[in-house]
Amino acid sequence: MKSMFDEEKIKELFPREERIPYEFKLTQPIKQDEYLINGEMLLWKGRKRKVFSPILIKDNKGLKKKLIGYYPLLTKKEAMTALFSAVKAYDNGRGFWPCLSVIERIKYIEKFLFLIKEKKKEIILLMMWEIGKSLHESLKEFERTIDYIQNTIYALKDIEQASSRFVIEQGIIGQIRRAPLGVVLCTGPYNYPLNETFSTLIPALLMGNTVVFKPPKIGVLLHYPILKLFHEIFPPGVINTVYGEGKEILLPLMSSGLIDVLAFIGSSKTAELLKTHHPKPLRLRSILGLEAKNPAIVLPDADMELAIRECLNGSLTFNGQRCTALKIIFVHKKIVKLFIEQFTEGLGKLKIGMPWDESVVITPLPVPNKAEYLSELIKDSTVKGAKVINKSGGVLYKTLFYPAVIYPVNERMRIYHEEQFGPVVPIVPFENIEEPVKYIIKSSYGQQASIFGNNPEIIGKLVDILVNQVCRININSMCQRGPDIFPFAGRKDSGEGTLSVSDALRVFSMRTIVATKESDINRQIFKEIIKEKNSNS
To answer: What's the burial of 121, exposed, middle or buried (CB within 10 Å: 0-12/13-18/19+)?
Structure first.
């Protein structure tokens, strides 16, 4: 039987400096004094933010925070300079970058793709130290990002090939192409700071837009090696970076009215604030990835072993810090006792520790006071009739939090409604299938749902209901984003716009058409333009 954890045992999981494997040591803080505007790496001499790792270090005096670096805290002045640089580089669509042919822009991205692979170890190490992501998950995020960029290039080549054909209809000759939108404000989330950032940044660039890029508040330092690549590869003004407080940086950018596209992954509250500050909302296009409260519905005939495995991975991978995580599990009363027994047994086998520990699943939480927030949710639930039903559930020390399973959860509890974004698993018993269906219909969120069962008739009826409530229904599998050729989107407050390797290229561009009446002279004009390469479009 696995030993129970108490606060002292959780505390003991933090390492001494000398016990950290050599290949995972971060010996010197990352001293980022630079930021990129208009193709120049500028030196910042103002205020900086210290970055402390969620991994605490043990010495003879106890545990202490480890300083892993710092980055610039820019002001409104620098933010606006970055914006004007992007506006100038776009130049109402007449700048060097938007006027390049698709093939030429692809060459820049391919060079970037080649060089970023050389930064793999450095980026992964910083990801582990800065956001506490396990070695396995960090490797997976990096490799997936590489695949995403490569597949996006392939998708654009396909789109370009299809667009090169002329269409003749009702005596009109037309060529339909895709054109950039303008200046993009791009921000990413802390939980997937590399992958989700590049899932918007790369297609935005490929389609000819210029970018103002703000890394997430947590997960800044791992972008520092990439900053140098931006400087080395891209023309002046195409990518500009800003760092600092959102209110200080982002609100002035939006209030300027010069942002054409908001590519934001984070909270709906922040997204709404940003959008309302834009003075020309009809001109603003938004691509948003926001909160989700993805439910699992476990039917009485579900394959128990499969459902347990998928629900464990779905709710607790990277501490449940995924927008696609299973955030609430509805289990039929006929099987709920067995489900809980097997779920808590499986949870007890999950390893908790440091990111470099082999097979670790539960690691330190990077968001300040996150463990305390999760404890508040647990307390609220227990006061209102639920219990923590797994051994050691909710035990914590500083940034390490042992997963808690709460049962039975009902609508009076905060955990029923709030996106916990952490290792707390609420289980709701149900008897009538209308109970989870009503929950999904009333929910503010509409990203995904999972159904576990074996009856085609029941599953089919559920699909017909849920397809109008969420954007992806997973049958006998956990919620997830991939594969990246599939559309990724959200209904209600969970998102705006659709992302995939091809959809992203479309949302960062618009269809335009060059047309003429069919005649010999007009045909000749089209042929000459193509033959002499008078146009890049």
So the answer is: exposed
What does the block give as tokens for 27? 């010996």
Residue 238: Cβ-neighbour burial (10 angstroms; 0-12, 13-18, 19+) = buried
Q: What is the pLDDT of residues 443-486, one digit of tens each?
A: 999 999 999 999 999 999 999 999 999 999 999 999 999 899 99
512: tokens are 């335009």
Q: Phi-psi category of 64—alpha, beta or left, where left has phi over 0 and alpha has psi -120 to 50? A: beta
Superfamily of domain 20-289: Aldehyde Dehydrogenase; Chain A, domain 1 (3.40.605.10)
Q: How far apart are alpha carbons 215 and 30 in whole angstroms?
A: 16
Give pLDDT tens digits for 64-91: 999 999 999 999 999 999 999 999 999 9
Among candidate residues 296, 299, 346, 326, the one with its CA nearest the CA of residue 2: 346
- For residue 14, the one-letter residue type is F
**Whole-number pLDDT of residue 524:** 81
Q: Which CATH number fits domain 294-491: 3.40.309.10, 3.40.50.720, 3.90.228.20, 3.40.190.10?
A: 3.40.309.10
How many CB atoms sit inside 10 A of residue 103's CB? 11
* Residue range 139-148, pLDDT digits in tens: 999 999 999 9
Helix, coil or strand: residue 158? helix
Nearest residue to 240 via CA among 106, 83, 43: 83
The DSSP 8-state label assigned to residue 5 in this structure reads P
| The residue type at 241 | T
Within 10 angstroms of residue 205's Cβ, the number of other Cβ atoms is 25
> Whole-angstrom Cα distance, residue 413 to residue 382?
9
Q: What is the DSSP letter of 365?
A: -
* Rg of the chain, C-alpha, whole Å: 25
DSSP string, 34-65: EEEETTEEEEP-S-EEEEE-SS-EEETTEEE-
CA within 13 Å, CB half, 14: 25
Backbone angles phi, psi at 186, to 5 degrees: -115, 125
Rounded to the nearest angstrom, the gap between the alpha carbon of residue 163 and the centroid of all alpha carbons in its chain is 30
- Closest to 467 in 3D by CA, of 486, 451, 483: 451
Look at residue 462 in the predicted model and tell me its pLDDT: 98
Nearest to 394 by CA among 408, 383, 406: 406
How many Cβ atoms are within 10 Å of 425's Cβ, its own excluded? 30
The ranges assigned to domains in the chain are 20-289, 294-491
- Angstrom distances, CA of residue 31 to CA of 34, 77, 132, 346, 394: 9, 22, 20, 42, 36
What's this model's pTM, rounded to 2 decimal places?
A: 0.94
Q: Is the pLDDT reported for residue 3 higher than 70?
A: no
